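Hi all, long-time lurker, first post. I run a small reading group and we've been trying to get comfortable going from sequence to structure in the token notation. Rather than ask abstract questions, I figured I'd post a concrete chain and ask someone more experienced to write out its structure so we can walk through it together at our next meeting. Sequence below, copied exactly:
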Amino acid sequence: MRDTFAKPFLKWAGGKTQLLEEFERRIPQGLKEGKYTVFVEPFVGGGAVFFYFNSIFDFDKCYIFDINEELIF
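-- Answer (accepted) --
Happy to help. Here is the structure in token form:
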């Protein structure tokens, strides 16, 4: 795991920054052990979850998506 933390790229209604500690408590053991190497973020929003997990784990591939076309270009 890395020890740096990237911040969300914009403030977003419904952002998940305040929930990151809860998400971290629920990390699957396989992710902690490096068995899962692909990250998929279906609702990137401001990017809090993506940037947080990408900062602490070394993924081989990351895919981010969102229905808002202004975010995904």
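A couple of things your group might point at:
The first helix runs from residue 20 to 25.
The radius of gyration is 12 Å.
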